[in-house]
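Practice problem 4.
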């Protein structure tokens, strides 16, 4: 057997449209992270960004199970002593559900330059309208 080595220029970039309506947050984020990293392709290479662009619509209609809406907290820090702030998932979803999806997906990508590059290919919108019609995204049902 021979091991094939692929470069970013060897593959075509495609755009994928995913609908978050009625999906569970964590399971949906896992599928999105796999598409962004290219793990759904036979040409997957761990040290190269082989993934596709992902457009997520209807982020407001994402579901969570259990008591996560009240118990799961999102933290941020101002950099000053005592400057830590926290918000429950319920507030994050009320303000911007796209932030909850972005945070979940970002945590599933590599913590490196490559992961940050993959994350830039994620586009999340709270309703079903998006400005990427010119890219002709392919709709995938998860």
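Answer key:
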């Amino acid at each position: 057997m021979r091991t094939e080595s692929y470069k970013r220029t060897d593959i075509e970039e495609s755009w994928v449209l995913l609908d978050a309506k009625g999906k569970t947050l964590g399971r949906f984020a896992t599928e999105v992270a796999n598409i962004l990293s290219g793990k759904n392709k036979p040409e997957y290479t761990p040290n190269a960004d082989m993934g596709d662009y992902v457009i997520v619509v209807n982020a407001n209609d994402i579901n969570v199970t259990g008591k996560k809406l009240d118990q799961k907290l999102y933290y941020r820090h101002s950099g000053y002593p005592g400057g830590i702030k926290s918000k429950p998932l319920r507030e994050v979803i009320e303000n911007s559900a796209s932030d909850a999806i972005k945070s979940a997906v970002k945590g599933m990508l590599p913590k490196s330059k490559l992961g940050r590059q993959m994350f830039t290919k994620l586009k999340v919108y709270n309703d079903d309208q998006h400005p990427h019609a010119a890219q002709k995204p392919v709709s995938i049902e998860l």
